[in-house]
Design brief:
By secondary structure, the chain is α+β, with helices and mostly antiparallel strands. It has three helices and five strands. It has two domains: 74 residues; 101 residues, Ribosomal protein S6/Translation elongation factor EF1B (Alpha-Beta Plaits, 2-Layer Sandwich).
Length: 184
């Protein structure tokens, strides 16, 4: 009988040892799974940080380019009468005579465009000069620092002089809308 108890006791100890081994193996798998989950979270966080740094670098590049683009905006002419003076001076530099200039009366105060960021007003110009000078004048307008677009133009030959003509131009000028002053 004593032998039976010893065998039974041995079986119980073996079962306890096997259970303990399985419990230990389960705990080890759980720790490994948690370690793998933490490693994958760490890798994801590292990728997010790298992406954030890349986005930050791209943001800095974009803002610096925007600042370079916006720098000339600070010197844009917002007064339409001063713009008429610019057209006259550009005509002198292009060897073109400005016969008449006027701001379209329906747009004297300007029309908001580009989501309200700019005022647009249209100017009508009558100029005369040699054809090459007239072409340079149109090019000077379109390449001005201030955003301007020649909407339409018509050339007319001047029969009294060789290589001379007149032109009628309709130009759209954009001026930034002044930022509203904040009340402090």
């Amino acid at each position: 009988m004593r032998a039976k108890w010893l065998v039974l006791l041995s079986l119980v100890l073996v079962l306890v040892a096997v259970g303990a081994e399985r419990l230990t193996a389960w705990r080890v798998r759980k720790v490994i799974a948690r370690k793998d989950a933490l490693n994958s979270e760490l890798e994801a966080a590292s990728r997010r940080q790298i992406a954030s740094q890349s986005d930050s670098r791209r943001y800095k590049q974009i803002t610096s380019v925007a600042a370079e683009i916006a720098a000339p905006l600070k010197s844009y002419q917002t007064d339409p009468t001063q713009m008429l003076r610019w057209f006259a001076e550009a005509g002198v530099r292009s060897n073109v005579r400005l016969l008449s200039s006027k701001i379209n009366s329906s747009e004297r105060e300007g029309v908001l465009v580009a989501g309200g960021a700019y005022n647009r007003f249209r100017v009508e110009l009558d100029v005369e000069g040699e054809y090459a000078s007239l072409v340079r004048y149109v090019e000077r307008i379109e390449r001005a620092g201030q955003p301007m677009v020649v909407d339409s133009f018509s050339f007319f030959a001047d029969r009294s002089a060789n290589d001379s003509g007149k032109a009628k131009l309709h130009v759209s000028c954009l001026t930034p809308v002044p930022a509203p002053e904040s009340n402090k």
